[in-house]
Amino acid sequence: MTPVIEHPCPDDAAALGPLQLRIWLQTYPCEEAGIDEAWIREHRGTSATAEGIARWRDFIEEVGRQPDLLFCRVVRSGRELVGFLCGVREEAVTLGPMYLLNEAQGRGIGDLMMREFLTWAGNAPMRLWVTDYNERAIRFYQRYGFRATGERELWRGKLPNIRMVRNAASDGEA
After folding, report:
1. Tens digits of per-residue pLDDT, 47-82?
2. Global pTM?
3. Fewer beta carbons under 10 A from the terminal one: N or C of the chain?
4. Residues 64, 97 contacting (CB under 8 angstroms)
């Protein structure tokens, strides 16, 4: 089935929270960094709880009220959500989170999501955080003109992230 990228509806919140946890469990385990399933469930497991789902619902509703400031798209394969991309416009545009299930990767869906996001963001400078051992994601963002700044953070004291920025819409469109 061909995936479809679309605006989420509030009812998608029930699937987004568990999807976010599932993707984290696929993407972030790293023995070297001390990131395992238990750590992920401790720090991201709330996304799949009633409270996390309520936060997703509130965010989706806010996106509908402020589409110039907030961005969110979901990727649907049949009736199942397989990914999503969100962002916010502040002094710069912040991209994130952007996730696809492993089985949805490598089919050009990420490129379609990114192009839609870049159209929304326009000429604004952009920034994001990416986990430093997620080399596939780093290469993906580099194809779109994002460059590492050297700024680093440890999310929740453990997950190593690097800052990437993109200065103008004309930089590196894939």
Report:
1. 999 999 999 999 999 999 999 999 999 999 999 999
2. 0.92
3. N
4. no
* Residue 23 near residue 74 (C-beta atoms within 8 A): no
CA-to-CA distance for 3 and 79, rounded, in angstroms? 10
Maximum CA extent, the chain: 42
Alpha-carbon gap, residue 84 to 114, rounded angstroms: 11
Burial class (CB in 10 A: 0-12, 13-18, 19+), 161: middle
Q: How far apart are CA 148 and CA 130, in angstroms?
A: 10
Enumerate residues 6+ apart whose C-beta is below 8 A from 99.
19, 20, 23, 27, 83, 84, 85
> Residue 37 corresponds to which amino acid?
E
Rounded mean pLDDT of the chain? 94
